[in-house]
Prior knowledge:
The complex is a heterodimer of chains A (426) and B (939).
Chain A (H helix, E strand, L loop, with lengths): L1 E8 L4 E6 L8 H10 L8 E4 L2 E8 L2 E7 L5 H19 L4 H6 L1 H11 E2 L2 E2 L4 H7 L8 H16 L15 E14 L5 E15 L5 E6 L2 H6 L15 E4 L5 H7 L2 E3 L4 E10 L7 E10 L3 E10 L6 E10 L4 E8 L3 E5 L4 E10 L3 E10 L13 E8 L8 E7 L7 E15 L2
Parallel strand pairs in A: 8-23
Antiparallel strand pairs in A: 1-2, 1-5, 3-4, 4-5, 6-7, 8-9, 9-13, 10-12, 10-22, 11-13, 14-15, 15-20, 16-19, 16-21, 17-20, 18-19, 21-23
Chain B lengths: L3 H12 L3 H21 L4 H17 L7 H8 L4 H14 L7 H13 L3 H14 L2 H16 L5 H17 L6 H10 L6 H17 L7 H14 L8 E2 L2 E2 L1 H11 L8 H17 L7 H21 L4 H13 L5 H17 L4 H4 L2 H7 L5 H14 L5 H12 L4 H18 L3 H15 L5 H13 L1 H16 L5 H14 L11 H12 L4 H17 L4 H11 L5 H14 L5 H6 L12 H8 L22 H26 L43 H9 L4 E5 L3 E10 L2 E10 L6 E8 L4 E5 L12 E10 L8 E8 L1 E8 L8 E3 L4 H11 L5 E7 L6 H10 L3 E2 L10 E8 L5 E11 L4 E8 L2 H16 L8
Antiparallel strand pairs in B: 1-2, 3-4, 4-5, 5-8, 6-9, 7-8, 9-10, 11-14, 12-16, 13-14, 14-15, 15-16
Organism (chain A): Linnemannia gamsii
Pfam family, one (chain A): Adap_comp_sub
Keywords (chain A): Cell membrane, Coated pit, Endocytosis, Membrane, Protein transport, Transport
Amino acid sequence: MISAFFIYNQKGEVLxxxxxxxxxKRSIADIFRIQVISNTDVRSPIITxxxxxxxxxxxxxxxxxxxxxxxxxxxLIFEFCYRVINVGRSYFGKFDEEAVKANFVLIYELLxxxxxxxxxxxxxxxxxxxxxxxxxxxxxxxxxxxSAKITIQATGATSWRRSDVKYRKNEAFIDVIESVNxxxxxxxxxxxxxxxxxxxxxxxxxxxxxCKFGLNDKVLLEKDPxxxxxTSNTVEIDDCQFHQCVKLGKFDSDRTISxxxxxxxxxxMRYRTSDNINLPFKVHPVVIEIGxxxxxxxxxxxxxxxxxxxxxxxxxxxxxxxxxxxVTCTASSGKAKYVPAExxxxxxxxxxxxxxxxxxxxxxxxxxxxxxxxxxRPPISxxxxxxxxxxxGLLVRFLKVFEKNNYQSVKWVRYMTKAGNYQxxx
Amino acid sequence: MAMRGLTVFIADIRNxxxxxxEEKRINKEMANIRTKFKDGSLSGYDxxxxxxxxxxxxxxxxxxxxxxxxxxxxxxxxxxSEKQIGYLGITLLMHENSDLVxxxxxxxxxDLDDNNEIHNCLALHAIANIGGRxxxxxxxxxxxxxxxxxxxxxxxxxxxxxxMLRLFRKHPDVIPAPDWAERITNIIxxxxxxxxxxxxxxxxxxxxxxxxxxxxxxxKAIMRLHKVIVERDFSADYVYYKIPIPWLQVKLxxxxxxxxxxxxxxxxxxxxxxxxTIINNSQETPxxxxxxxxxxxxxxxxxxxxxxxxxxxxxxxxxxNILARFILSKETNVRYLGLETMAHLAAVTDELDEIxxxxxxxxxxxxxxxxxxRRRGLDLLYSMCDVSNAxxxxxxLIRYLHIADYALREEMVLKIAIMTEKYATEHSWxxxxxxxxxxxxxxxxxxxxxxxxxxIVTNHESLQEYSAKMVLHYMRSPHCHENMLKVxxxxxxxxxxxxxxxxxxxxIEQFNTLHARFGLCSLATRALLLSTYIKFINLFxxxxxxxxxxxNQYRHVLDAELQQRACEYMAIATMPTDDLLQTxxxxxxxxxxxxxxxxxxxxxxxxxxxxxxxxxIGGKDSNEKTPANLLxxxxxxxxxxxxxxxxxxxxxxxxxxxxxxxGTVAPANGSTAPPTPAAPAAKVGLTWKDQLAPGHENxxxxxxxxxxxxxxxxxxxxxxxxxxxHGHLGRLAIxxxxxxxxxxxxxxxxxxSPEGLIVANSHTLATSxxxxxxxxxxxxxxxxxxxxxxxxxxxxxxxxxxxxxxxKLPVLMSRFIEPIQLSSADFFGRWKQIGGAPREVQEIIKVxxxxxxxxxxxxxxxxxxxxxxxVDPKPGNFVAxxxxxxxxxxxxxxxxxxxPNHETNMYRLTIRTTSDVVSKHLKEILHTALLxxxxxxxx
Lengths: 426, 939
């Protein structure tokens, strides 16, 4: 399994170095720096050099690297790397170079806990927080009591939840967050469109509640004969995965999502769909090269969602040729300006009402080049957030909470669609 | 240079922690610069700053595809700093084939023409860096002008020389080197040693391509060496660890190796002096490493030159002793160079005795710890090998082969094979050695080696039995290499029957010996062995059964070649009659003699290097094609050509430089050395005669009839002449007076003498004439044969530019006549003896104006004819006699009658000599003299 685990900063300096097995030397860290970090050609997250495989994940300004000499399960190792990031985030708020440097003792402690001889162990932040703390040493008695709890917790059926959680007000928040990926050809054909969604849950519920959760998922609904008439409104989910608290046995047998939620925030589910996607924005770019010294832009953006909704932080990145000397542009809404550092015109629209449309007209002046290279015309990319809108059309149908005490709980659902890789060629 | 914007930009870039940030900063800056450039109307300072920024980005590795025009514009700026950045920009951003180079050619030319030498240097740098073909074509002449111009500063000249060298190396065809040869070689005389050094590098490169055009460099180089080494005339700036400018010394010594040895006795003596001094200097123990290195560098080059000049000279003998000491040195480099130089010596000399004394040391060097030294040791052994020591060397090498480095073995095997073949006195020894070689060197033996063995054995009947025996013996040894099996297979197949009666070599034993190895060898060898077997069937029918079994087995083998052979041989062997078998297995005919493939293989190994080698490793015979020797060969050809010409010229009295097409006139018989180094004509196809100075005829004609006077005069130079003659010898003094108030530099005089006349200068002339001073050059003359031409002299000097004056020297044939007095009886006796045409010539000469008897008399006297009074019955008629002396062709008696006719103002001239050529030519001389009316004197 994992033979060693390293964290590097952006320059390739080793911040954390933990060896779990004897089959590697510490100097292997240099090899990764030379072969991967300083080699700009390498883009693959897995590099095998000799018999050693390097798995790396970039997060903020860090490289999180796991090494193995075995034919290990790559997905498992990547999952572990992401878990480390999550644990780090829940401990330090932000998992970046500064945080790692400031908390390296704690990180080594955590690494000792989450991996044993290279095999992943409990990596649930909530559980870890019970016994790996930043606080000062407690009295012996308290430690005794705590340790008893910890043992039960770590070995029990719901290792992710303590049993003694109590809230005055029982609330559960569900956020459905979707990111839309789009690639539109210059002719306006959709080359690729899909939605990657995640359902985040914040549960502030007392005791050990059992929740049931329902979506307008096609498979789920069609199973239930009573709901068959509503099938027009269903969503076909290509693929989904759940938090470890979800009882997969039940899901497999009768497609119900039931679980005992961990306390606090967690990601309940991740899914992907590629059918019937409502694209939130339509872009009509008209880019004309006039001679060799000028390019004319006319970009029209239309919001495709209901006029009751609005999008925030809409940003369009409109590439300009590499030999641009200057750009003049006017936008019917928001601000547009030429950013030479990125070779593009950045058009920002803070608030974009549904069904409205805006245009940008502009002109880029070009300088002569010694080597005539045709402009590669990279695509326009777009960034946005639309609240209370899902591109996939997914809706939460219900969330039921059953608890021994039978308390009343309040549930909130929020939807948001944001741009993933939203690109339009021209 | 302070450019705040640039400093800030560089600081920003350095502060970027990651590539992405750097890229963003770069993009931003590029956009900014694009905008600025687009605007135009930038000040020179701004342009400079932005070009600097672009260059900084460029050297960081980013693509820069604009700003070239701005760099080009900067070049034409008048400010140095802007110009400098402009040039830096174009040298970095452009390469020699980019289209934009065209734009800068004119700016560069302008800077080359500039009076500011710093601008010249910038332009030269640019040419040297990006000079492509186009640039070379359009700017080479400007570079040349800067190089030869007397106004150029030293450092400009240096750079110009090196720029020219770069252009020449890139595009040798663009530089008209032969045309420029003379002016370039003149620069060797420059007072600045640095200039001399740079130009020597240039000449070394040029001379390898155009050796004849650069012959002029020989005396210059020798004089320069003499000045530096013997006269110790050098500036103190150029002393490196007590050694004056070692780089120049080495280069000059090297340069001289590209030419055949000079034939001018003065020069060779001077050179001898130089070499001797170098060798003497080398005796002193050096102070430190640098001193040692410099001293040795010069010494080795000097030894190489000495070997090149004459490998039997005394200097070489001394050098050999020094080398012997060097090959024992503790320093690896010295040992290496010592061996290398000794190999050079061994490669060209016949006298190997000196080197053979050190054979043991050389053999020991094969065990040196440094492989390059071992290699040189091997080279030397190979070069010094001859019949007498071949056996020792070869046996030593074979012994060494086992422990030799793998990298060395293949070459060693080749060399051993060549030496054995070349110096074998007895054939059996050859076979022994080669077989031993094949059995011990194994894999390192190339195919060529065993091919050659087979060729030689086949061609020498006496060897065949012996080698068959030996091969069989070697194949029985437990470690038998496949190559041995190949040789064995072939030889036994051909000559196995010769030893079939010996014990242990019966047919079946031969077959078994071969077949024991059959399964272990490669397919090609097996195929060869199958052929051997079919030959065995022919030779020894008694073992046919065993062999057929093998064929039968191999009819089913997978390899197509083996299968086919087995099937075909099987078919041939099982035919009812043996006719076909016998025809097929007829004994091999002898191989035609061909060049050993081994030598060509060995020579392949010496690749092309920058400077051509002046010699090849190997015996004397392998050194006949080196550059200098080639040149000598062409010279020889020319000489042969002029011998042919001599035959023609005797009859039609036109000896010209036609023999040597390039204006080089060599003496008809190569035994005596020509007086001065033959100098090339300035332009090919244009002989000296065609370039005589205008107005020269006046002075010349005046001197025809006298011995002393002014030969030439212009505003700069006055040339006077004095001469005296005695028999076939003469002395000629030429005075060169500098009429100006500045020094004349690069002064050089060379003489082109017609065949049969030797003009030798007594000492070497100074290369400069001080203001208002006169120098003198003495020539000794020797008339060897009948000469009908006069010698030509060429004077060149530098006054502003290089001037060349071509003049005729009034050394007429008649100068070598001794007057005699004959009585009337004697005269007419001989007159009749000579008889009429063709040895008699007669001409009626009509003169302008009155006949002056006194003048006629003085003409005859001046042409050294004795006037015999009272011989002719008619008073007033002249009778004159003389003997024309030559050192080689004997004497020619000359009789002459000159009959003036006062009424018609005509002379009748009758000449009878014992040689028709002399008659004709003497008549010409007198004819011209009688007709000549001196022009009114100009002073």
